Amino acid sequence: MSEAFQPVLLKRCGKNTTVGIDAYLADGGYQGxxxxxxxxxxxxxxxxxxxxxxxxxxAGFSTGTKWTFLPKGHPxxxxxxxxxDESEPGTFNNRVLIEEDPHQVLEGxxxxxxxxxxxxxxxxxxxxxxxGYRALEKAIEEMYSRNLLGKNILxxxxxxxxxxxRGAGAYICGEETGLIESLEGKRAWPRIKPPFPAIEGAxxxxxxxxxxxxxxxxxxxxxxxxxxxxxxxIPKDPNxxxxxxxxxxxxxCISGHVDKPGLxxxxxxxxxxxxxxxxxxxxxxxxxxxxxxPGGISMGFLSxxxxxxxxxxxGPGKVGCLGLGTAxxxxxxxxxxxVDVLYNTCRFFAHxxxxxxxxxxxxxxxxxxxxxxxxxxxxxxxDLKTLDDISKTIGTMPGTTICGLADGAAWPIKNALxxxxxxxxxxxxxxxxxxxxxxxLAH
Amino acid sequence: MGSVFIDDKEIDVDPKSNLIQAAREAGVEVxxxxxxxxxxxxxxxRMCLVEVGEKKPDGSVAMLPRLVPACQxxxxxxxxxxxxxxxxxxxxxxxxxxxxxNHPLDCSICDQAGECYLQDYTYKFGRxxxxxxxxxxxxxxxxxxxxxxxLFTDRCVMCTRCVRFTREISGTAExxxxxxxxxxxxxxxxxxxxxxxxxxxxxxxxxVGALCSKDFLYKKRVWWLKHxxxxxxxxxxxxxxxxxQNEDKMYRIRPRENPQAQGSFMCDExxxxxxxxxxxxxxxxxxxxxxxxxxxTAVGSHAEGSSLSRSESxxxxxxxxxxxxxxxxxSGGGILGEVRSAIASMAKQDGRRFVAIVSPFxxxxxxxxxxDYLRGLSKxxxxxxxxxxIVGEDDLYPKGPRGESPTADNVxxxxxxxxxxxxxxxxxxxxxxxxxxxxxxxxxxxxASGAFxxxxxxxxxxxxxxxSGVVRAFEGLKLLIVQDLLQTPLSDLADYVLASASxxxxxGTVINHKGLAQSYRVAVRPPGEAxxxxxxxxxxxxxxxxxxxxxxxxxxxxEIPALSKFGKEEVGTQGLxxxx
Lengths: 443, 580
What we know:
The complex is a heterodimer.
Chain A: H1 21-26, H2 31-37, H3 41-51, H4 63-67, E1 79-84, H5 93-100, H6 102-116, E2 120-125, H7 130-145, E3 161-166, H8 176-183, E4 207-211, H9 212-224, H10 226-230, E5 233-234, E6 246-247, E7 249-256, E8 262-267, H11 272-279, E9 289-293, E10 302-303, H12 315-318, E11 328-333, H13 338-352, H14 358-375, H15 381-393, H16 405-419, H17 421-430
Parallel strand pairs in A: 1-2, 1-4, 2-3, 7-11
Antiparallel strand pairs in A: 5-6, 7-8, 9-10, 9-11
Helix pairs in contact in A: 2-6, 2-9, 3-6, 5-6, 5-7, 6-9, 13-14, 13-16, 14-15, 15-16
Chain B: E1 2-6, E2 9-13, H1 19-25, E3 49-55, E4 61-63, E5 68-69, E6 79-82, H2 86-101, H3 117-125, E7 149-151, H4 161-168, E8 175-178, E9 185-188, H5 201-205, E10 211-213, E11 226-231, E12 240-246, E13 249-255, H6 268-272, E14 287-288, H7 293-300, H8 320-327, H9 334-350, E15 354-358, H10 364-377, E16 382-385, E17 395-397, E18 413-415, H11 423-433, H12 440-448, E19 454-458, H13 468-475, E20 479-484, H14 489-493, E21 496-499, E22 508-511, E23 516-520, H15 533-540, H16 549-559, E24 576-577
Parallel strand pairs in B: 1-6, 15-16, 15-19, 19-20, 20-21
Antiparallel strand pairs in B: 1-2, 3-4, 3-5, 3-6, 7-10, 8-9, 11-12, 12-13, 14-21, 17-18, 22-23, 23-24
Helix pairs in contact in B: 2-3, 8-9, 10-11, 10-15, 10-16, 12-13
């Protein structure tokens, strides 16, 4: 099935050029927007609900349903924030979209803005994406010149302005309320919910935050219809009434120990093994995969035995991972020590914990220190118990933190200790020191 | 009001309160660090996590699978809260272990020890050991963080109460968080220390020993302190306070929560503005007889009081046997006896030639006793208001970004320009006895023009410069009686000096700017032979018995219609609105 799949989102990408407005229009661009403007905003939202589109930012919440959470009959302004703070390790799908085909994203943005009645959109882009920023800047300028933005878009009576905002580089700015705080010029400390952003978000106004890839999908849903969207991916599990299905194409980022790292677009539900073997040239140097990160490091690890897990919204969860996340697959070969991998993972989260909630602030740093000591040959078996306790006492699921960062920090520890425990025990017993040098984290 | 179930106990609470408050109503303690009822909710310390559920109409209870912060959850009717389950206990233990990971074990040298929420909660809810084998994060102490406050950075639990205080209450926003994760700290921007007029409050709201008052630092272990409820006399806001003392020495003043008075906070003027009560310049004994002439000239030029010659004044006997005689008593003799007969003879000659200047620092009871006594001697004695100190304008908080005052409905704290505690109370008394309130500058003119031969002047002011013109107005008097705390040019000029007591040394009731009556309680004894004003006046006026504030208030209530509320209700710890 996947062999025959024609890329949708990446159709115009991969040439290392940026698609301009003329080329985009010539390729049938902005038809989705025209279709949307011909409908009532509520119909647009219903179309997106019907398509079964789930957010591509990590949590996988139904996009159209999210839009309906806005207060009815609000006098405005309502804001649409675009989450372009793509900072989950291993993730680079948004980057390719905005660098090479920004109009596809911006079209989805205007459609979403129209559906929710937004008067302003804040495009929050991580600072590191310089090329993407310039591509977006140019694309937005082109849109204004063609009346695709600004007052009375295409004569529809709907007006929208976009503010392109560059972040200053923090993982936590990708959390939607952290993003809003950062956008407001504050420290990106995630807010307590309720109120959810749809009720009180940016500048205390109702706000919807959507991921870049999600908006790109919206473009195509309005262009080709929800039924077309539903032909792609994995349908709802009839035995699980709460399952929303995994419809549509998905950008999978493949990195780590593979021969051909890169970005591929496939229907949701491809397995990790297929991705590695068919699209990434297999594990490098003829080695075998020991572990695979299914969707960004915060989702945990798949063991070698779990490589046939379908990477849809439900698959990774069934084997103990946190979820699909951003579908950023990182392959770890069999020569790599899981102690080192977990140490590096913990170090990342300790560095990125915003420091607001006690369990996350202290737990991430503590686990890093413990793993550092284990790597230095000074670990004890009791450390594994402590690590396990830390992983179970931080996060939103026990209820001990405000945002999901701590869950993301806990899951790799949980998975590593579950699935690779003998390796940790052997390492501690041997008293070996890890000979891998630490690479300084950028400050 | 709606029913909430806290650990199976059903109580009625205001649905606007949160679960911490609801639990408190039910007598259940929910521990917390970051929440403060006057600050915004951040729910970041995660200490107050509880199990929450909902009671359905059919009586079944559906509990949420995860713990929720009690501070953030409103007490909706039908909410079921469980604080004593294993899950909650384990969470508290774990959170405390996290909080203590990088906390130094320096309780023995920490000022907060004894009133520290880390200590208390660890004792009640924590584990006895930490599993940390790693070196603790080291952070440098910051003594520079403010003129009055020091930050012991490594003790901080990052509750950010102080940060929110400077943003939401003072509006000055000096404090903020730097760095990220486990190495984050509270700090100020270089060159912008936390010196706003409310800065001292961050020490009170700090739940641990991170922010300490430099004034109190290492002065006293808190468990030696004894506490007395009192009222700040710094301005007419009349903040409810607690005076902390040990062995008749005051160590600090803290705000006492009182929504009717000021709320939860107080300003630094009041917090630190009591040092004169224990310093040099306090009158510690009564005195009879004028000082030498050389002294009088020196007074005119505002020379230091200590340089005065006391050759002509009669220094009081110091031996125990003579002690009672120095003041004398109701039976006559002593200084009070002399004062009594001096006033009586003047009143007999011509009451019109005698004036009493009633200070707005006097309590209602004292003002009443004085006026009642003098009017008893002669109906023609003038009763006038003492100087009402006004300094600048009311100082409103929170300040805006450029230091501008908030709009009227956003005011959270006011430091009033009127720097005395009881103008309203004294005015009510004066209106009853004099019929009007004669302002100080009017009576001063009369004094200067020689309209009076004798004066009873009551002070009680904090140290301030008395203009030479004021002193000169009193110079020509045949009889000047000064009742005051501090040695001033006027006390040097006086024929009789009655050394009186500060707010912390006496009982009495004052009425603040909006008519709220609050009472002082005796915290410490007056220094030396100084006496509480009420006692002086009781004995001077020949009343029987000891000074007892509630008894006098009852009398005031019958005599002064404006203060009749004193007869109906007690002035409790939260005060009594007597003038609405």
